[in-house]
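Bug #2210: token dump truncated for Branched-chain-amino-acid aminotransferase?
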Amino acid sequence: MESSAVHAATIRLTHPISSSRPFLSHPFKPSNLNLNLNLKLQHKFPLASHNPSLLQPLSATLSDAHSETENVELADLDWDNLGFGLQTTDYMYVMKCPHGAEGVFSKGELKRFGNIELNPSAGVLNYGQGLFEGLKAYRKHDGNILLFRPQENALRMRMGAERMCMPSPAVEQFVEAVKETVLANKRWVPPPGKGSLYIRPLLMGSGPVLGLAPAPEYTFLIYASPVGNYFKEGLAPINLIVENELHRATPGGTGGVKTIGNYTAVLKAQSAAKARGYSDVLYLDCVHKKYLEEVSSCNIFVVKGNVISTPAVKGTILPGITRKSIIDVGRSQGFQVEERLVSVDELLDADEVFCTGTAVVVSPVGSVTYLGDRVSYRDGVGAVSQQLHTALTRLQMGLAEDEMNWTVELR
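Reproduced locally. Full output below:
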């Protein structure tokens, strides 16, 4: 596993800002990190009851694994009732690709979480030139923190940036920035089994542009928030409605990259569905209106016997990292996993249906409503959904041996 080495002498922190004044920077010193936070840390990390000796304290500074450690204290939150909403944390990470830098991002820095300033003519505000990613950090019982496949997020952002005519941080820059952000906010990583720290990297055209063109300057920013379950049902069946009039993506468009505009496109149908009591919306292809694409923010799988099928990624469907992981986990457990066109008729005839995504992880589907007809699958969580959810989350939380080499451990 990779080390969490971060060279603190090169990191800079800043004070909170308001809309009326810019960031004020000062050098970051590892010895005074906790003093600079100047925040009351109220909850000590609970020791593992079955073996207290397993829980070694995390490092008090952003340094390598050999540095002196101290007791880790957690933020004052109700960890048992953590939902999926924004909880502002201490620090964010900012890195820029200035005009004339030929696509090269300068070294980034940690700043106190706060508002950012943008020119009214910024490319992201006027032409939607923006991408985002999502990944999670989990706390292990020994106190260390695990990231799940951050390199995949870096590669997906680079792929999306090429489509959106944007420069992108190198994979190494992306991963190191994620590590620094997580370690700076480590008191916000929930206790084992209580949730995760959701990490949101953003890439945006921040430079001013009036005519339709790529922005002259770009900003890469990462913030984080502790989260619980995405759906209020938790690991319980959700109810979907199939949308056959509105579509989230078209062939040749940007449905296959994680651009901000893809999610605005689903808000109308999703809002209407939730007002009627559904958990979310499942979209069909816009050409034939018969093949499954994806749910508003996650991929879809259908199970029939020992075969698990998911729509093939061909430009209109986001190549989800959890999707990719479940395909590999499913095959390793003896399932036949297929990536192909999946019709709505197969959905209605399935033994089991589930969704995957960074936010939802694996979420079983209890019912699907299509053209007014409701099809229910089972009262409880399906056996395949449960099996795959357990296998994946045990990997993510460090409870199972990582034979896939997917996790990155921060000590």
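Output looks complete on our side. The first strand starts at residue 12 and ends at 14. Marking as cannot-reproduce; reopen if the truncation happens again.
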